[in-house]
Amino acid sequence: MTSTNVLPTGAPVTNPTGTPGIAGSPGTPEAPRARFTLPLPAWMRAHHLQLWLGCGIVGVIALACLVGPWILRIDPNAQDLGAAFAAPSAAHPFGTDQLGRDFLARLLHGGRVDLFVAVVAVIVPFVVGSALGAMAGYFGGWIDTVVMRIADLVAAFPFYVLVIALVFSLGNGLFSIFVAISAVSWVSYARIVRGEVLVLREKEFIAACRTSGLSTWKILGRHVVPNSVGQSIIYAMSDIVLNIGLIVTLSFLGMGIVPPTPDWGQMMGDGQQYMAAGHYALIVVPGLCVVLVSLGLAFIGDGLSAVLKKKG
User: Which intervals of the chain are annotated as region Disordered (predicted)?
Assistant: First the structure.
């Protein structure tokens, strides 16, 4: 039995191999040194930093757009040509635009419109695409063939070209944007869910559900769909980013939100002609808002992906 007493330096000790050594000599094993670790919160140690950072960025901007107009209490469409391009002041914290309208009020109202349209325009494609993809993957046969061939037909057209063509045919406005996005965006969700269901339907618990006598629709609603939409939820974050870019682009080209309703793309389109005069904020600030929202949503998508991979 080896002794574990601590001896002074130079005294013989017994190392784990059973050979004598000298305390402090190279042949003597040293006690493991404690590594310095930062006292990080649990949610950071769990690799959720991106998720929380994205929620913080998007939450702050969304809260400002939602509550800001009630606090500011300035009509975003009120014009004062005598105060055009006014510098920031107590009356106008971000100054005014070319028509003397309060720039901050238009920025907040425009963000409210763009975020609302971008989020709501994801719901219908998500629901429709997930339902069609689940049925195509689970039933197979002619249902799978019909759904996937229609999806291939829609995907054959460039996304922006098809959406712009639909908006041009239906006319400007929120309804046209909703219809155009819904008619095109469901394809991605259908393909994602179909791929998940093709793997899921071969699992043992699905076979057990069939054996127990559950109806097909109960199996789909209770087990198949809830276990196959995880990747679609992650994709929805990037889809919102795509919708924001689409709405801003359409408004910039004069085919999106109908004036005088404020919109970030419309603000950039109106301000581009005044950049040569040095009024860069008219186009830079709305563009920066688009970038920050897109960055926050990208962080949320990456964080959700990391969470799902960790659970899997």
Answer: 1-30
